[in-house]
Design brief:
- The structure is a single chain.
- It contains nine helices and seven strands.
- With 277 residues, the protein is an alpha+beta fold.
- The protein has two domains: 182 residues, no CATH class; 63 residues.
- The protein has a seven-stranded antiparallel beta sheet, with helices on both faces.
- A hairpin with a 3-residue loop joins strand 4 and strand 5.
- It starts with 6 loop residues before the first strand and ends with a helix.
Length: 277
Amino acid sequence: MTATSVGALLLCRADPETVRPLAHLLREPMVLTPAGDGWTAVVPEGKPWRSEGGEPVDRVLGGWATALAVGSAWPVLALWWDGDRSGYTLASGFRRPVGYIWLADGTPAGEDEAMRTFAVRLGLDPVLDVQELEALTRPDPEADADARLRGLLSVLTRTGVALPAGLTPGESADRLRSVAGAHPRAEQIEWAGWRDAVRVELDAVESGSLGPWVLGPRARAAAAAQVAVGVPLTLWGAGRRSGGWVAAGLILLVQGALGLAYNRFRREAEAAGTPRR
């Protein structure tokens, strides 16, 4: 068998509550569902790679993974497949994304070093796990591209990944959306404008789901850096007509601006509440 359907999903190494604010900023309809201990699956409802003049599915997913990763402290793994190839892209912070591709019949078409980098960034066992990953880079007439991705996911089960039944590489985008939406803890993400996205982000800050780094001198420095990087990244993505990179830039801008505003608000509130001596 060879891959015939076009599909994609994102795996974020964080719980849905933490992923939700950033997923809103992608401005795409998506379904969030738990995918194991400390993992969340994000399944796009639309198929922008099929639109007229749209980008290939791997580029779209790589852009989304980068957009989510640059605005967070957790890695994002994009899995994708079409009639010709299957592969993954791992994004982690501002580091260069790493990925691998297999042809539809399972023929490896990537660099072996990518698998070792993949293992290091996810904290996998440098011996046993790397051996299994490197086996996916060697010829195997019994394994097509879908089987390669399933082998990759099998290794990730040791990190807590447990995809819901039916959320499987090789399935169509429509099937993935249906399976994800049927999960009892599934969440629908709909773009309702920047006001709603900012509200969701602020709620996450107030609830503490984004962690303690949102306050203090280091947080202010990080927020300023996000704004400084977000502006040129947004312009660069717009020039390349890349929705994923534009989303990455906008996420940095929004998070940076909110971070600066929130820290200023909290400092002023604390100063107003401090009794004079």
